[in-house]
Amino acid sequence: MPEPEVIYEDASVIVLNKPYGMLVHEDWHSGNEGTVVQWFLARVPKAQGVGEVSVKPDGTPLERSGVVHRLDRETSGVMIMAKTAEAHAFLKAQFHDRKVKKEYRAFVYGRIHDKWGTINRPIGRSAKDFKKRSAERGAKGTMREALTHMERIGVGEYKDEAFSYLKLMPQTGRTHQLRVHLRAIDRPIVGDMLYGERQMKISNNLELKRLALHAHQLELILPHGQTERFIAPLPHEFEEAAERIAE
Hints:
With 247 residues, the protein is an alpha+beta fold. It is built from five helices and 14 strands.
């Protein structure tokens, strides 16, 4: 497993490019595999205990030191970690107040016909699978507001199958939001084993061997007061996939 790449670092924060396939922090079911938090604490031991405290079902602590926000294991890209309690509270407030600007890149199955669009669908839990969220009829539990803006970068065919390349700007931060919203409009993200399994089985998947979702940009105010925008370069396989549908 590749290690995260440091994009920026100062006394309060580290901004990194998380590799595909790496957990941000251990979960209830994971073993001792490498996580972003483990990498972070090896680099910044003094950050032990920074952030929100949570526990596993058996009562043992869940190690989440430094975590301000998270990316799914299958998603690569830019994220920020806090080294101090003060930095964590400062950054957490921006995410809570929706002042952070986030931009993702994704490939989806099928054609997106409009250049610009917005998905405004509340998200609850799937009635069929406890691991999944849903923005479709039949979702259960508390339905939380969720809003995603999108821009079509490209659309085309590869081996007689249509795909679209998107820029996604989530305005809220619900679990699996982008994956759930695109599933809800019947355009699941390429390589999504949880929300696009049916399409995966019959598709060429643009020859991608991973979930086609990457956190490309993050813009926010750092604890020292400056607004900064950080960019995690597009994975090489995304550039190749974009060329495939452009041909």
